Protein 1
Amino acid sequence: MKTEHVPAPWGWRSASYWMTLSIALAILLIGLRFMLAPQLSMDDFGIGPLTDSALTYGRIKGIRDIFSGLALLALGLTRMKKATAYVFTAAIIIPFTDCLLIYQQNGVDLPRLLVHGGTAVYMVIASFLLFRNSYKPTT
């Protein structure tokens, strides 16, 4: 008897699939909001006050968020679990760094720290699920 490792199906029935798509959609919407309403977005993010250079940074963040959301959506919708797992795991550095930057600028700003830190924890859990059971043995 020969055993093969076939990639496990990944899609609508997987928690990691929905966790990944929800972050992709959320970051896409956040990016759009940074482009369309930079002042409001920067206040909510924890960056302030608004200056011309800060506005430019806000728009730079917005377009990068849009790209990140579209890239994750493309990987998820094409059901490329392994590629999604690597990209999603690497992206954990973003909310983690955001959390540190907010702490550095605002000190203990608990609501904003919880948003960024909570996002990092959520992404760690999703990454664990993405790498778990990537293959199922067949006979």
Protein 2
Amino acid sequence: MIMYSEVDEVADVNKEKLVADFKVVVADAEALLRATANDAGEKVAAAREKIQASLVDAKVRLAQAEAAIIDKTKQAARATDQYVHDNPWKAVGISACVGLVIGVLIARR
């Protein structure tokens, strides 16, 4: 049985946050390119071409990172599903305890 460790979960959360932050950076860079589209000059044109090439590369890597995160998430879901099927009473007991704790916390308000 595959157990999904907390370290893997933290790494996945960090990857998802990194992907989200990277999407914002790419969008900002694209906006900067559009804003400077009318600026002339050799240095500006060279910088624009370099940024555009970097953006294309970054988008490809971003898509690969997203695919890796989706694969890991699916593996975790399958492992959880398998664990619940292998240990149904443990899953029911854990779920009941979590529900009890949440119910107590809500009732305290």
Protein 3
Amino acid sequence: MTLTSPYDVYQRAQVDTASPAKLVVMLYDGAIRFLKQGQTAMQQGNREKQNHCLVRAQRIITELASSLDMEAGGDIAANLMALYQFMHEQLVLANLQDDVDKVQKVREMLESLREAWAQVEIAVREPSSTVVASGAEVLHAA
């Protein structure tokens, strides 16, 4: 893949240099951004953009689910997997039924999880937080 714009190059550098916890936060940010855009498109009756944005959010959620280390992550990973599956199903239904409320509920769930992962990401950068950091890397093998 050829990166042509300075923004693309910047984005690639952000991903290449990010910690696993930061990558998870970036995925949450992307999903939340696409859900906001999807909600707006849904409210404006732009079904093509709505579908595009909600499918992009679903793909990010699928990526989050596929990066879970189910063996090392134990119950926490299992609970996250259940949440990701629920969110994915809700977005499929929201897209079919043009249901902004379902999108909003998933968005709120992702925002809550994003905040938790942002705290983990901060702890990863702190030298005294190695227990939290290694635990985070166990959950998502990003």
